[in-house]
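Tokens for chain A. Residues wanted.
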């Protein structure tokens, strides 16, 4: 069976090149919140996180696939406010609305100045931190966050990945396996 996804790069760990470099979680969260606020969204969701992550972390972008596939994913993410993703406007990702109640899109006095994380986005960030701690890491990496976003079959980030032709479960498994292998020192050029 032939896979269209490129193999993940080998682990290379040194003082100059850590095992999983990339944007730190604070930078990804900050970028995602700015994007949500610019779009008038009330909450920062997993699609905002994925967008910020792929823009700021080369390793995460490479893990998604070849440059054409990564560009397709980013294309869907860019179009969220002008077409693709408009069906998300009046809902909070991961929330279970009460019967007869719909979450309203941000605006006016209802808009949050900080665009708090949706329940699904908050869960992905918490899971990434927990993943890094289990591995003994001080801080979650962009790849930890990518694994956790791709592993939630109900989140918006997974919907975008699927639309762009990426198998989210396979992506999560491949990246998680690579991170675990790097941590154990089993990978080529491992620590």
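Reply:
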């Amino acid at each position: 069976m032939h896979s269209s996804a490129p193999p993940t790069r080998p682990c290379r760990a040194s003082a100059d090149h850590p095992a999983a470099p990339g944007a730190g979680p604070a930078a990804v969260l900050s970028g995602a919140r700015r994007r949500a606020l610019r779009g008038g969204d009330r909450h920062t969701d997993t699609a905002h996180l994925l967008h910020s992550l792929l823009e700021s972390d080369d390793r995460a972008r490479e893990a998604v696939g070849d440059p054409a596939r990564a560009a397709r994913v980013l294309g869907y993410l860019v179009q969220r406010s002008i077409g693709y993703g408009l069906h998300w406007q009046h809902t909070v990702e991961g929330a279970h609305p009460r019967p007869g109640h719909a979450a309203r899109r941000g605006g006016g006095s209802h808009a949050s100045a900080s665009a708090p994380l949706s329940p699904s986005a908050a869960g992905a960030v918490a899971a990434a931190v927990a993943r890094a701690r289990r591995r003994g890491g001080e801080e979650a990496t962009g790849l930890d966050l990518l694994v956790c976003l791709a592993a939630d079959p109900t989140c918006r980030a997974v919907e975008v990945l699927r639309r762009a032709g990426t198998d989210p479960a396979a992506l999560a498994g491949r990246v998680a396996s690579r991170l675990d292998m790097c941590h154990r020192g089993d990978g080529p050029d491992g620590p």
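The longest helix spans residues 168-184. The chain has one domain: 25-93+111-184.
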